[in-house]
Amino acid sequence: MIDQGEGVEMFGERRGAGTATAERAGRGPKPGRGPEPGPGKRPGQVQGRVDAADAADAADALVLEGVGREYRRGSVALHPLDLTVPRGRFLAVMGPSGCGKSTLLQCAAGLDRPTRGTVRIGGTDLATLKEPALTRLRRERVGFVFQAHNLVPSLSVAENVALPLLLGGTPPDGRASRGLAAVGLAGRAEDAPAELSGGQRQRVAIARALVTRPEIVFADEPTGALDYVTAREVLALLREAVDGQGHTVVMVTHDPEAAAWADEVLFLMHGRTVGRLARPGPDEVRAALVDMSARDGERG
Ligand SMILES: Nc1ncnc2c1ncn2[C@@H]1O[C@H](COP(=O)(O)OP(=O)(O)OP(=O)(O)O)[C@@H](O)[C@H]1O
């Protein structure tokens, strides 16, 4: 059974209608996660990054207020929802095909304009930005990891990682090399993407997504094309990006195993938030999905 929650704030800094069952039970972390935060720290909070915070850093990574998306009149892909993702958190978004996961991600990432509501990334209201500024925000303040890694085949691995910096006119200054080392590919910098395995390419895509130190990383089915072991490696990197480097990740996934790496799982159905779970294990995620479908079936 999962709790209902329309106004969704991770870990309930502003608790809405529902608080996750697992959270109430005070259950600890799952094995296989990254390191736990120390005493007095919020999950995923990294002290160094917080100490270095400037005024902009004080804002939540992502705030959605009443965000909805209608494609045609009467065809609502996303009913108005509220969602806050503080910095340094890892949120997974799940739900059956067509429930609005990609629509939510695209609106939140500034890839699509919602038909109502407000999206703020690091305090910036995306509706106030014209296309060039929005493009710049996506390039400099947002990281993307897709199922298809979207590496440029004619560029080397290192050049692919450096690309977001180069496009913004910023010299990489060793950041691409450090990013590649962080994903365990320091020795492959000069290779072409075609010379890497699928999992290695996805690791390059993660290094590229993090190279600008974005305020938020959106990952759409990042492990969808990977086998179990390789998927775990990729998820461990995303987890480490949050726990070790203070990044914020929002990941759409169909896979309960993948969702269980997140700090919180948000469940959508028919374009609405129908529940959330804090730090669930894969079996709890599976059970929640079954419960959701059963309740939906009862409603007919
Ligand atoms: N460009 C579009 N024009 C019209 N309807 C759309 C468009 N994109 C999505 N939709 C509709 O919006 C709803 C939500 O789609 P969305 O792609 O967000 O779902 P999803 O949960 O990501 O699905 P999946 O898991 O299959 O990728 C669906 O009913 C879909 O048909």
From TrEMBL:
Q: Which residues form the ABC transporter domain?
A: 62-295
List, alphabetically, the SUPFAM superfamilies matched. Answer: P-loop containing nucleoside triphosphate hydrolases (SSF52540)
Task: Give the source's domain of life in one word.
Answer: Bacteria
Q: Which UniProt keywords apply?
A: ATP-binding, Nucleotide-binding, Transport
- What GO molecular function terms would the record report? ATP binding
Region of interest (Disordered), residue spans: 1-52
- PANTHER family for the chain: ABC TRANSPORTER RELATED, IMPORT ATP-BINDING PROTEIN
Which protein are we looking at? ABC transporter ATP-binding protein
Q: Which organism is it from?
A: Streptomyces axinellae
